[in-house]
Specification:
heterotrimer; A mainly alpha (92); B mainly alpha (107); C mainly alpha (195); A: 92 residues; mainly alpha; 3 helices; 82% helix; B: 107 residues; 80% helix; elongated
């Protein structure tokens, strides 16, 4: 079972790399926010998988909960901030 | 029991894959939000349910509390994810991005 | 009470105004109305406290009692909008019966978007459009639940709601945009007792 969890974690990290493409090369700021949000939701699962691998789920589940909340607040704050800036089309 | 756990975990990973591929392939910002906001939410639900089930293998009070905490994450994400999606789409609308329609080139 | 930092979008502000009418005042009639939401909020808060702390010695339990009491006193009018106990419980029972149907819809619609994401000729299949319609729902909580349900079923995202229920929805193709408002609005109306 530990091997399955290990390979699932590696696969999740690979998916995060795919999402990172959108975060780095996304044509507008909001596209980058989508990429960051997608990475954050995968990280929540990855944290619990790491906890199962190290047999310390009771500790890692708290970290995962805090990370989910932090991700939500970060997305809210970023979207409140960037909506005031015009001219998203010109940004590359 | 293990089979159920693995089945749910792989289904969740499948939805995560769809989300990541969809973010890369869809043509514009608004349609990219469809896979990003929601395929990820369902993938997280399925994979976290499977991990909570696996955690109950050696049953004890501590394990039960940990599994309930994992389910608390699921409930929180189900409340937070539509709100975050709405915040992002609102930022896009106020910045004046025009939606992609059929026939335009991809952005 | 709770005048702190309401810098949220319009719909949260209007929800907040709605709650002010029900917030506890001085005369004894209202104090009784304030009691049941306080107790229910306190029970939920204390359940979450026990879940998060996982310790059952008297010191941690008493800390939890004190802090849950303060939080429940300050924010009991936010979670439960109706102050009457009977309407409150029936309301939540109806809402819980709405959730399984929503889950089935979410899974069905998710499979549809998954099919779109992996389809090799995806660009010809999708046809994004903005759908506008007028909803019949009245209360703010029902409108918010409806908007979140629309966003959770993939293929549709709520772009904008006005206070009187004017929806703007971004749909990924014709098939997912057409059934709105339809069945989902009826279910939400039933869940919140608006017919």
């Amino acid at each position: 079972m530990d091997n399955i969890f290990l390979y699932c974690s590696l696969y999740l990290a690979f998916l995060m790399l795919l999402s990172l493409y959108r975060g780095v090369f996304g044509p507008t700021v909001v596209d980058r926010m989508i990429g960051v949000n997608a990475i954050g939701s995968k990280t929540t699962v990855l944290l619990i998988l790491i906890g199962l691998l190290y047999h310390r789920v009771d500790m890692f589940v708290d970290i995962a909960l805090a990370y989910a909340m932090l991700n939500f607040v970060a997305v809210l704050a970023a979207s409140r901030y960037f909506q005031k800036r015009k001219g998203l089309h010109d940004e590359v | 029991m293990d089979i159920v756990v693995i089945l749910f975990l792989f289904a969740g990973l499948l939805f995560f894959t769809g989300g990541a591929v969809g973010i890369l392939r869809f043509p514009d910002f608004y349609s990219r939000l469809h896979p990003a906001g929601k395929l990820d939410t369902l993938g997280l639900l399925l994979s976290l349910i499977s991990l909570a089930l696996f955690n109950l293998h050696h049953f004890s009070l501590g394990a039960l509390l940990t599994s309930l905490k994992i389910l608390l994450i699921v409930v929180f994400v189900f409340l937070a994810s539509p709100t975050a999606t709405h915040a992002i789409v609102d930022a896009g609308v106020r910045a004046g991005l025009a939606p992609w329609t059929k026939g335009d080139e991809r952005r | 009470m709770d005048k702190q930092g309401q810098e949220n979008p319009d719909r949260e502000r209007s929800l907040h105004n709605d709650n002010e009418d029900l917030s506890p005042a001085v005369d004894p009639q209202d104090r009784k109305l304030f009691f049941y939401p306080f107790v229910l909020t306190f029970i939920i808060m204390f359940g979450i406290w026990i879940l998060l702390s996982g310790k059952f010695d008297p010191f941690h339990l008493s800390l939890g009692l004190i802090s849950c009491g303060i939080v429940a006193y300050l924010s009991s009018d936010l979670l439960f909008s109706s102050p009457r106990i009977k309407g409150l419980l029936a309301q939540w029972a109806r809402f819980i019966r709405y959730i399984p149907w929503l889950m089935v819809e979410i899974i069905k619609a998710n499979l549809h978007v998954l099919y779109l994401a992996f389809h090799p000729r995806m660009m010809e299949l999708i046809d994004p459009r903005i759908v506008k319609f007028q909803s019949k729902l009245k209360s703010d909580l029902a409108l918010v639940t409806f908007a979140n349900s629309i966003t959770l079923t993939p293929g549709t995202i709520t772009v904008d709601i006005s206070v009187d229920g004017n929806f703007k929805v971004h749909a990924i193709d014709k098939a997912s945009g057409d059934p709105l408002p339809g069945e989902m609005e009826r279910r939400v109306a039933k869940a919140f007792g608006e017919n």
